[in-house]
Amino acid sequence: MAYGYRAMFMLLYTYDQKLGLNTIELIISRYAPTSENNTTAYVKHVSQLSGVPATSRISSTNRDIMIHVVAAMSQHENGVPAVMADVEKGWELFIRDIARR
């Protein structure tokens, strides 16, 4: 599970760094486009679960925000709350890997 979360952190880091997608609204619009999803509901749900306003700028390297955003996305996708220990381990793997770049 931790490596799956690491992959999500890496994807959102790429969205931020290469595409400038740095709000929940922009991230979800790319990750779950309206042609395939109810993007509006997805954005609202992730924003509510994470406690991060949908249009607030976030940094993909801010642990305190990103672990909650990724956990919320996981819950939305899977229908069950994320195991935070797994999310946090994924964060540690992600940080280790970007520090090696």
Please describe what this structure looks like.
- By secondary structure, the protein is an all-alpha fold.
- It has one domain.
- Helix content is 69%, strand content 0%.
- α1 (2-19) packs across α5 and α4 (63-78) packs across α5 (84-99).
- It is globular and about 35 Å long.
State the helical fraction: 55-70%
Sequence stretches where pLDDT stays below 50 over 5 or more residues = none
Total domains: 1
Strand content: under 5%
Quaternary organisation of the protein chains: single chain
Cα radius of gyration in angstroms? 13 Å
Element-level helix/strand string: HHHHH
The best one-word shape is globular
pLDDT averaged over residues: 97
Q: What is the strand tally?
A: 0
* N→C terminal distance: 23 Å
Largest beta-sheet characterization: none
Total number of helices:
5
Strand pairing plus helix content: what structural class?
Answer: mainly alpha
Descriptive keywords:
single chain, 101 residues, mainly alpha, 5 helices
What is the strand and helix layout of this fold?
Blueprint: H1 2-19, H2 24-31, H3 39-50, H4 63-78, H5 84-99
Helix pairs in contact: 1-5, 2-3, 3-4, 4-5
